[in-house]
Amino acid sequence: MSSVTHPIEIVRPAARAAAPQRWSVDAIEALFSLPFNDLIFRAQQVHREHFDPNAVQRSTLLSIKTGGCPEDCAYCPQSVHYDTGVEADKLMDVSAVRAAAQAAVDAGATRFCMGAAWREPKDRDIEKVAELIREVKSLGLEACCTLGMLSESQAHALKDAGLDYYNHNLDTAPEAYGRIISTRVYEDRLRTLAHVRDAGMSVCCGGIVGMGESRRERAGLVAQLANMEPSYPESVPINELVQVEGTPLAHVDKLDAFEFVRTIAVARITMPKAYVRLSAGRQQMSEAVQALCFLAGANSIFYGDKLLTTGNPDVERDEALFEKLGLSAC
Ligand code: SAM
Ligand code: DTB
Ligand code: SF4
């Protein structure tokens, strides 16, 4: 008898890698609409499957090149298009960056994130930043940079210097992007993210809420992040808009605090293994709302009294909050 193998036995579905779950905007919007307690309960369940529920990762930010940016992001105090009082500075030198990174280590941060107000760095900027990355890594910190758009070769150069994470936010839903930024398009952001991934770095990518967007648009942003190919970002910063006088969004209606917490919960449910960072906006947030964000699955914060150009709770205040909530750093 001849032994004929049926094709179905050769390509057994179980032998294939499980396809990542795709989230529709409708399904994400339905999560947003759950009763608050049900949503938080679900987020907490997902969180506990993958993380220690009482551990929060801490990253310290440093603006290594401030102001004078040619882009027109409507939220940003560093754009040349708006009069916000932020002065344009040159790239910081190695010794000053080293001192700031050492202070971050001493305060208990595990990651150091260097931000530059560039549309895109020049190749000679990348050489200088590579030196900064090597310094940061020599202190035992994880290194992250956010420098604007990158070419393929620039992404590889940063990876070769030891960069662990690259932060590049999608900021809002594709259909809302044109209302916020006119000097680049969504596709530009996605291209840089692909270069970062291809170079072998971890992706840090999130957005800003409270810019006057609809709930549907918040769901659209989360869908972009959760469905990112080949996988969602390892780190997802959820920023609440910091309203800065002089920017077009300085007086936009403030987002309801529960809607912010809902956004964190939805990010947690749709990106179960990501570090979801409660990012900009903590300075204006009560401790109770921050505690709700941790309950909703946020497990990372920016740590230190400054973000890039605006304020953040100081280390003592955060230590006290961790103590009150029984949180530990990881
Ligand atoms: N120029 C680079 C870029 O845009 O990718 C890197 C620096 S930029 C300041 C980094 C991120 O900061 C932005 O993508 C945005 O998400 C966030 N950001 C800027 N201004 C903000 C504000 N006023 N409130 C909240 N987040 C803000
Ligand atoms: C991110 O998502 N938020 C950080 C970091 N990545 C670079 C920046 C927040 C900036 C807030 C406004 C400012 O301080 O200039
Ligand atoms: Fe420039 Fe980045 Fe600010 Fe946009 S967000 S104006 S690209 S520094």
Short description:
The chain has 330 residues and is of the alpha/beta class. It has 12 helices and 10 strands. Mean pLDDT is 94; it is low at 1-16.
Give the overall average pLDDT.
Answer: 94
Low-confidence segments, given as residue ranges, are 1-16
First-to-last CA distance: 63 Å
Number of helices: 12
Ligand inventory: S-adenosylmethionine, 6-(5-methyl-2-OXO-imidazolidin-4-yl)-hexanoic acid, iron/sulfur cluster
The proportion of residues forming helix, as a percent range, comes to 40-55%
| N-to-C order of helices and strands | HHHEHEHEHEHHEEHEHEHEHE
Q: Describe the main β-sheet briefly.
A: 10 strands, parallel
Cα shape: globular
Radius of gyration: 21 Å
What is the strand tally? Answer: 10
Question: What kind of oligomer do you see?
Answer: single chain
Q: What percent strand?
A: 5-15%
Structural category is alpha/beta
List the helices and strands and how they pair.
Elements: H1 7-10, H2 25-32, H3 36-50, E1 55-65, H4 94-107, E2 111-116, H5 123-138, E3 142-146, H6 152-160, E4 165-167, H7 174-180, H8 186-198, E5 202-204, E6 207-209, H9 215-226, E7 235-240, H10 257-270, E8 275-278, H11 287-295, E9 300-302, H12 315-325, E10 328-329
Parallel strand pairs: 1-2, 1-9, 1-10, 2-3, 3-4, 4-5, 6-7, 7-8, 8-9
Bound molecules: S-adenosylmethionine (SAM), 6-(5-methyl-2-OXO-imidazolidin-4-yl)-hexanoic acid and iron/sulfur cluster.
Description of the structure:
The chain is α/β, with parallel strands linked by helices and 330 residues long. The chain is 40% helix and 14% strand. It contains twelve helices and ten strands. It has helices spanning 7-10, 25-32, 36-50, 94-107, 123-138, 152-160, 174-180, 186-198, 215-226, 257-270, 287-295, 315-325, and strands at 55-65, 111-116, 142-146, 165-167, 202-204, 207-209, 235-240, 275-278, 300-302, 328-329. Strands 1, 2, 3, 4, 5, 6, 7, 8, 9 and 10 form a ten-stranded parallel β-sheet that branches. Helix 5 runs parallel beside helix 6. The radius of gyration is 21 Å and the shape is globular. The model is unreliable at 1-16 (pLDDT under 50). Bound molecules: S-adenosylmethionine, 6-(5-methyl-2-OXO-imidazolidin-4-yl)-hexanoic acid and iron/sulfur cluster. Iron/sulfur cluster (SF4) binds next to loops.
